[in-house]
Amino acid sequence: MSSTRRRGFLATVTLATTLVIAGAPAASAAAKPEIKVSGGTTQPVFSYEDAIREHVRVRSSVDSDGDGKKDLVRVDIIRPKESGSGLKVPVIMQESPYYDNPGVGFEIEKKKYDADGNVTKFPMYYDNYFVPRGYAFVSVDMIGTRLSDGCPMSYGASDVLGGKAVVDWLNGRATAYDAKGDPVKATWTTGRTGMIGHSYEGALGVGVAGTGVEGLETIVPLSAYTSGYENGHVNGVLTWFSGGARWQSEHVDKDPAEKCEAARRKMDAESGDETGNYTPYWDERNYRTGPISKARNVRASVFAVMGTQDRNVVGSQFSEWWSALPRDVRRKAWVTQYGHIDPFWARREVWLTTLNKWFDHELMGVSNDIMRRPRVDVQLGPDRWISQADWPAPARETTLRPRRDGSLGRESSTGTGAYVDLAKTEIAMAADPATANPNRLAYLTPPLKKAMRVSGTPTVSLRLKLDKPTANLGVLLVDYGQDTRINHRERGATSGEGLKIIGGEDCVGQSTADDDGCYFKAADNTAVSGFHVVTRGVLDAQNHKSLSRQTPLTPGKPYQITWKMLPQDYEFKAGHRLGLVLTGANDDFNLDTSGNGSGTDVEPGTGARVTVDLAGTSVSLPLVTGTSVK
Predict the structure, then answer these.
(1) For the chain, first and last CA: distance in Å?
(2) Using alpha carbons only, how large is the chain's radius of gyration in Å?
(3) Which of these is catalytic: 96, 148, 199, 223?
(4) Does the annotation mark 198 as catalytic?
(5) d(Cα 535, Cα 334) in Å, to the nearest integer?
(6) pTM reported for the whole predicted model
(7) For residues 547 and 244, which has the higher predicted lDDT (pLDDT)?
(8) 613 labelled catalytic
(9) Which domains can be identified in the chain, with CATH numbers?
(10) Active-site residue, from 55, 233, 251, 340
């Protein structure tokens, strides 16, 4: 059902559940609770403690471990008691690979079970908050993890199709079995389902939505992958250690290693880590245009969150997918200056209110103002948010060019510059731009006479020569000027990704002895700094023609190489200077999460000398507000 058709559906349908508007007279004092709406949102009138807790195993369409049997997907359910006696409820679903290892959310929660195998503690707040409002919460162990059969395939087809099978079961199209092994139907639900999750969990929602499955009405992907390739690669540059796909599969799976060893050997053979190329293996894991999941097939509405300083799920994971969605898909987004976060930890009260309205509108058919508000919230700095009609904001492409004197402006300049490609951190390459450095070239605008906002995806074009067949090309866009900014670099027990723990807890929704629904409070982690790396771009030069094959460069021959940087929404304040830094391998992308203690760089740099022709080099910026730079 298309989004256009669903708009009419929501306006006219008589839901199986009865919506009781606040202020309407009750039928009787002894009447069972019914879904209650006040102020455009459902209210917590059902008992969380008395809710029905059960589990089933849904038969999927895949056999990921090759044992000759279709994988069964473990589904843990909590729903209002009244749904056992006629009340039909919609479903909020979280499919996660993390229930075994490492755990879910900032507080690394895991499931707890009673003697009958039913969950008494669900990680995160979705159950505590939404079950009392008349929703079922469905917690799905991704195939190959926790109590589901099969092998986790690092964003592969089975990861997605396991979640799709659950949506099919909720809508009467798949088979499930209860704890006794008897077939069981989801007679208690309307079938209208929304998926929510962070990181890998969000990716699963994106992947399932891209199958076009009916009954999945909305998804809420938070810092979600949309391309498995970009999980460990950027434009031919390997940003995870070799074998990252295998490591990820092993990391979330507590079963004996031999069960999935054949599947993991296949990952090793097909992922192409030795080149960093985009292969058919990665095409299967492409939820934008791949064979399993496509953005153009999405029927569900979308409420997405992107952190523009996320080094784990880079911003293009959101922007490329967002722009490829069908035009009639209803959508909303938050674009933040944080790293890899769930907004529940960053802007909790606003988030819960917004999410409540979103699910009520999309799953309950509640008439509220969620679609009348601006589509996108954008964070421009600490405690500074704006709203706008879409993302990116309407912008004018403005091209700036480096000059021989170290300045950056609209007019071009003759001359050349050179640096050596070695892995260096962004801080090292952006610091002291007036000081000569053999591993970078730095160019700055004069102080800006007025604020200048970039919204969208910058593009860089370099005319260059190499003395070797390839080099890792790195570009940084830097804000030079003293300011208080979100500090996303600091790591530690009480900070990270732009947030810090501030003490105390919020208790969200209703509680039981096993599941209190209480979570620590966090706030913006800020720091005063003299400069800030706004966005970046990297490219393996031999992939400048194609990500699927390498074309080594002829040493000494000039090439014009153009590629996209990572998207951003950022305001350069008046008096600050915008800097363009050309460098080599970006050491900040060298993620070593293998736990092997090697500490070696994934991309140490080639040692190639990169000679840049300034007359053919530029950066194009999507500017919302203009610049007086000449």
Answers:
(1) 52
(2) 25
(3) 199
(4) no
(5) 18
(6) 0.93
(7) 547
(8) no
(9) 3-388 (3.40.50.1820), 396-488+525-623 (2.60.120.260)
(10) 340
Q: What is the mean pLDDT of the chain?
A: 91
pLDDT given for residue 602 in this prediction: 74
For 73, how many CA atoms within 13 A lie in the half-sphere containing its CB?
34
Tens of pLDDT along 170-213?
A: 999 999 999 999 999 999 999 999 999 999 999 999 999 999 99
Residue with tokens 């370099």, as numbered in its chain: 462
Length of the chain (residues): 630
pLDDT digits (tens, 9 = 90+) for 595-605: 433 344 578 89
Q: Which residue has the higher pLDDT, 576 or 626?
A: 576
* Pick from 3-7, 237-241, 331-335: least confident: 3-7
Torsion on CA atoms 545, 551, 557, 563, rounded to nearest 10: 30
**Residue 135 has which token pair?**
């929703």
Residue 452 pLDDT level (bands cut at 50, 70, 90): very high
- Beta-sheet pairing, 331-336 with 440-444: unpaired
Least Cα distance to 259 among 267, 250, 251 occurs for: 250
- Torsion-angle region of residue 513: left (phi > 0), alpha (psi -120 to 50) or beta? alpha
Mean pLDDT check: name the lowest of 466-470, 493-497, 554-558: 493-497
Catalytic residue among 310, 360, 377, 588: 310
Known catalytic residue: 340?
Answer: yes
Element (H, E) at 200: helix 200-209
Q: Side-chain half-sphere of 551: how many Cα atoms within 13 Å?
A: 8
Q: Would you say 203 and 225 are in contact if contact means Cβ atoms under 8 Å apart?
A: yes
Q: Name the 3-class secondary structure at 519.
A: strand
The DSSP H or E segment spanning 266 is helix 261-270
**Beta pairing partners, 378:** 335, 386
Encoded tokens for 374: 């601006």
Q: How far apart are CA 105 and CA 348, in angstroms?
A: 14
Query: How far is Cα 199 from Cα 376, in angstroms, rounded to an integer?
Result: 20
